[in-house]
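Weekly sync, protein design subgroup
Attendees: M.S., D.O., the rotation student, P.L. (late)

Item 1: inverse folding check
M.S. brought a backbone from last month's batch and wanted to see whether the design step gives back something sensible before we order anything. D.O. pointed out we never logged the input encoding, so this time it goes straight into the notes. Structure tokens as presented (261 positions):
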């Protein structure tokens, strides 16, 4: 049976581009990316540029997401920006990105609080999960995915979980140029969907979107997006090149058209 999930292409700009560079880049991107309303294209710039880009954004083509958000709505938390403060600006927020987990020591408990805070504030979390190379080599991939997923989805209702996006991002493939093999991605995504089914039932598992992320570019994107159970890609490095990103969006659009035929 064909699913009716909308393919998402997400561009994680990481800690790149100041206000004027980002504005210039968005201008280029809006020229390169065609208006593809059957798919969803979401940009995740740094928090400083969210506000100015939101004014410039062509909303027929793009949505905005935040790369992070704190789980306390307000208070004595120096340096933090809460989900409550972001909710006017963004549709989505990344949670548990491997760079947050590994550079900033964020654990599953923090990811869980951030997911709940995002949902409470009307922002859809994109929960990133994935194993390190060491964990893959020692056969722990499924256990890691299980732990990160169950922690991330804790305390949600089936309806809230169904609206979420999961990004399967093997840590060893992020920013390395060494992307996962499509059959590894397929196996991981099927496992994740199956776990969601065990936790919330089949209906939720059919609705939740699961992306692949890890060195996706304009050359390899179709191998992942065409996988039957894959609902798009989270793109880091290649999202900083407007031509490459536009090609990835085109690939996704073609796959979505085929799925709708
Ligand atoms: C990411 O930032 O989530 C990512 C997958 O980066 P890259 O595409 O550069 O591997």
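Designed sequence read out in the meeting:
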């Amino acid at each position: 049976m064909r699913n009716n999930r909308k393919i998402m292409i997400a561009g994680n700009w990481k800690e790149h581009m100041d206000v004027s560079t980002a504005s210039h880049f968005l201008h280029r991107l809006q020229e390169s990316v065609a208006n593809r309303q059957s798919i969803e294209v979401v940009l995740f710039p740094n928090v400083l540029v969210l506000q100015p880009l939101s004014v410039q954004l062509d909303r027929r083509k793009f949505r905005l997401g935040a790369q992070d958000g704190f789980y306390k709505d307000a208070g004595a938390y120096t340096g933090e920006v809460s989900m409550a403060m972001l909710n006017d600006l963004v549709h989505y927020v990344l949670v548990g990105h491997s760079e947050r987990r590994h550079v900033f020591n964020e654990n599953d408990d923090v990811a869980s609080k951030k997911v709940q805070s995002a949902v409470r504030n009307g922002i859809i979390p994109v929960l990133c999960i994935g194993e390190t190379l060491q964990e893959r080599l020692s056969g722990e991939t499924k256990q890691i995915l299980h732990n990160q997923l169950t922690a991330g989805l804790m305390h949600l209702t089936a309806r809230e979980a169904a609206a979420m996006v999961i990004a399967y991002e093997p840590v060893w493939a992020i920013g390395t140029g060494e992307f996962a093999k499509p059959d590894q991605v397929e196996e991981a995504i099927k496992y994740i969907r199956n776990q969601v089914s065990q936790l919330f039932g089949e209906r939720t598992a059919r609705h939740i979107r699961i992306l692949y992320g890890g060195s996706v570019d304009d050359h390899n994107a179709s191998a992942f997006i065409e996988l039957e159970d894959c609902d798009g890609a989270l793109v880091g490095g290649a999202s900083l090149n407007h031509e490459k990103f536009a090609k990835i969006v085109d690939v996704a659009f073609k796959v979505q058209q085929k799925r709708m035929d």
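Discussion: Strands lie at 8-12, 40-44, 63-66, 92-95, 124-129, 165-168, 209-213, 232-235. The first helix runs from residue 19 to 32.
Action: P.L. to compare against the previous round before Friday.
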